[in-house]
Design goal:
With 169 residues, the chain is an all-alpha fold. The protein is built from six helices and no strands. The chain binds the ligand C=C(O[C@@H]1C=C(C(=O)O)C=C[C@H]1O)C(=O)O. It comes from Billgrantia endophytica.
């Protein structure tokens, strides 16, 4: 029998995976909003602003700042991958603008901003659990169940990478 993390750690890993999935779920809404407005998928100043906030809150929560930055950078990459794939698809379909598009600033970004502190708290758990035997194995197994595999599972792989890099197998 391979070693398994304690139940409490399993719950914390599940929680992290649910939050990652929730964040990825927002990407298609971002894509819709940008499809209508013509805004670029890449918003580097917005990413920089989130990362500044992340660095500050990570410090206060005892999360390694480089780990937190790397983690969020990968979440951005995964989200942008989804946006690019959808825009590519819609371009090929000749899709017209969406009828009732969400507003990026007032409807969509606040949803992502609410997830940020929850993800940082969860990162504090992950930092501790990284040393627990079987944590990486459990995370890998549960990710298949809890995180969407849209677009061939590529965004999922990207989003999980910083966690798996740290975890005991
Ligand atoms: C989600 C957006 O698109 C991209 C992805 C971001 C993210 O995942 O937080 C942030 C900025 C953009 O580069 C956005 O513009 O808000």
């Amino acid at each position: 029998q391979p070693p398994e993390p304690p139940d409490e750690d399993k719950l914390a890993i599940d929680r992290m995976l649910q939050l990652i999935d929730e964040r990825l779920e927002v990407a298609p809404i971002v894509a819709q909003s940008k499809w209508n407005s013509g805004a670029a998928i890449e918003a580097p100043e917005r990413e920089a602003q989130i990362l500044d906030q992340v660095a500050k809150e990570a410090g206060e929560t005892g999360v390694d700042e480089a780990f937190a930055r790397e983690f969020f950078d990968r979440q951005f990459s995964a989200g942008k991958q989804i946006q690019r794939r959808l825009h590519h698809q819609w371009l090929q379909e000749g899709r017209p603008p969406f009828a009732d598009p969400p507003d990026l600033a007032t409807d969509v970004r606040p949803v992502l901003d609410r997830l940020t502190p929850q993800l940082i708290d969860s990162l504090a758990d992950m930092q501790r659990i990284a040393q627990v035997e079987g944590a990486g194995r459990y995370l890998r197994e549960r990710a298949i169940v809890l995180v969407q595999d849209d677009f061939d599972g590529e965004p999922r792989t990207v989003a999980l990478q910083p966690l798996l890099d740290r975890m005991e197998p």
